[in-house]
Every structure is written in C-alpha cells, then in structure tokens.
Amino acid sequence: MWTSRPVRTVANWVVTSNDNGRSAFFSIDKRSARLFVFNERGRLQGAAPVLLGLARGVDSAPGIGERPLAQIRPNERTTPAGRFVAERGRNAQGEDIVWVDYADAISLHRVRTLSPKEHRLERLRTPTPADNRISYGCINVPVAFYNRVVEHAWTSGGVVVYVLPEVKPLDQVFPRQRSFLNAVGLLRRVG
C-alpha cells in the first residue's frame, strides 16, 4: 500500500519512540489527502482518501469550535496539523465519530452527503487530491473504510492521530520528532 515519505518518517518515529504508547495511530497526509491507519505496533491496517478542510494551514482559527458553521469564513476552514489523542464520541445527529480535537470541533467521520452540490462522494473517488478540500475542517472518510478499518482500530484501546502539515516542515509541527531524531543521530546535519 502506497505511503508518502512523510507518513513513513512519522510512523517510524512513532513506533521507535513509543510516542503512541500502546495505542493504534492514524496518520493523515494532508498533501495527498489520505488517511493511513496503523495498529499499536506500527503495522499498516489500511489507507483511504479523505476530504479535508477547504483552507490550507496548520492551526485552527481561535475559538472556531464555539462558532456556528455559518459564521466560519472559507479561510478559517482548516484541518489543523499536529498530534491529537482521539476520543470516540457522537455528533449532534447522534452518529458515532472520532473526536480529533474536541475543543475546535474537529472530528473524523463517515462522509456525509447532505449537500449534493458538493459532490463529496465523487471527490473521494478522483485519482488526485486536488479536489479533496471541501470540509469545515473535519476529516471525511469513505463509509466502508470507516466501518471496516477505523472502527476496528480501537481494539487496542485508544488512538493517537498525527495530522501532517502541508505548509510547514514536519519538525516544526512535531518538535519531539526532531529531538528524537537528533538524539539517535538520524537527522542529517546541515551546514
């Protein structure tokens, strides 16, 4: 199964440093708009395309989790990058979801087709990530993949989510990774 170099780098760091504890982990590569699900030992369980926030960026807008969707501007519709300890939960409609960042109302959930003009299912099926930017920041996953892979990731207990940045270097978003790689001599010295 195809993974990008940043996904492999983060997965190797997570497993080698035991950053995930005894939890399964998800790696979301925003550049390729793909979700990679790993078990607690770092074995890839599956991968799928995802839909992400419309705007590029690393951080959520301040207070975004407290605002109604109608008050969120297009440039604020960001899927934040970083390390998150996920929680299982329910959305306002009672559907089960994975809370990635509860305070900012960012979740990972089955794709919903409430607005046919958004063509969310079609966007997931296209061969490139160019049109996978549509959400308010949540991560939309194909229904079958969510039911078959995401749901079963919880058998080890918890899940840690690593959302990789598309506009900053990995070591700026995951500073512990940089420290770890420096400590074991894996980071190339520049200069």
Outline the fold blueprint.
Elements: H1 5-17, E1 24-29, E2 34-38, E3 44-49, E4 52-53, E5 82-85, E6 87-90, E7 96-101, E8 106-110, H2 120-125, E9 133-135, E10 139-141, H3 143-150, E11 159-164, H4 170-173, H5 175-183
Shape-level CATH architecture: Beta Barrel
Q: What's the helix-strand series?
A: HEEEEEEEEHEEHEHH
Q: Report the β-strand fraction as a percent range.
A: 25-35%
Largest sheet: spatial strand order: 3-2-1-11-5
**Cα-atom radius of gyration:** 16 Å
Write down the overall geometry. Answer: globular
- Low-confidence parts, pLDDT < 50 over ≥5 residues? 184-191
Question: Roughly how many Å apart are the termini?
Answer: 36 Å
Mean pLDDT: 86
Biggest beta sheet attributes: 5 strands, mixed
Total domain units: 1
| CATH topology name | L,D-transpeptidase catalytic domain-like
* Number of H/I helices: 5
CATH superfamily: L,D-transpeptidase catalytic domain-like
Count of distinct strands? 11
The CATH class is identified as: Mainly Beta
Structural features, described:
The structure is a single chain. The protein is α/β, with parallel strands linked by helices. It has a single domain, classed as L,D-transpeptidase catalytic domain-like (Beta Barrel), CATH 2.40.440. Helices cover 21% and strands 26% of the residues. It is built from five helices and eleven strands. The chain has helices at 5-17, 120-125, 143-150, 170-173, 175-183, and strands at residues 24-29, 34-38, 44-49, 52-53, 82-85, 87-90, 96-101, 106-110, 133-135, 139-141, 159-164. Strands 3-2-1-11-5 form a five-stranded mixed beta sheet, with helices on both faces. Strand 2 (34-38) and strand 3 form a beta hairpin. The protein is globular and about 45 Å long. The termini are far apart. The relative contact order is 0.23.
